[in-house]
Predict the structure of SNARE associated Golgi protein.
Amino acid sequence: MAEWIVNLMNTLGYGGIALLMFLENLFPPIPSELIMPLAGFTVAQGKMQLIPAIAAGVFGTILGAFPWYYLGVIFEQQRLEKLADKYGKWVTISSTDVRKANHWFGRHGTKAVFFGRLVPGIRTIISLPAGMNRMPLITFVIYSTLGTTLWIVFLTLAGYLLGENYKLVEDYIGPISKIALLSVIFGFIIWIIRKNLRQRN
């Protein structure tokens, strides 16, 4: 994976960074935790400039968020509610739960998008509820760009400062990504258990 990223970045330059970050949003196994630190290391070698490298990473990431956003637009709330009523009984989710979740996102959507872009494992999927809740595209782009820029700057500077040890960024952030995803799954399981207990009582 690392060798492929290096070759693509060396061949396409800033365009390679943008392409890799675009693909990272569509295929999460391609880690931004490896792409942008490598870009930072390349900057430290004098082969790239810092600001254009960061800009390319942000551009590719935002571009990669659009497919998920529009998937959410197509997969609208009413369709999800119907699926919840039809199949949700297996995980005790109803159309009412979907409406409550969407109502929450409607109230806190901008914060969710901004902070979601800073959380490994959540960064990609946060675009889906934004589309489902018809968050205005301009608002979505603004808050996604703000959160993404902070994340990209952090990763790029880490790679710049670590130099040849840029891979350490992925080693440290990788477990955080897993913990974040497991926390979401664990929280969802707890919510289901508590809901079942309330229904029995």
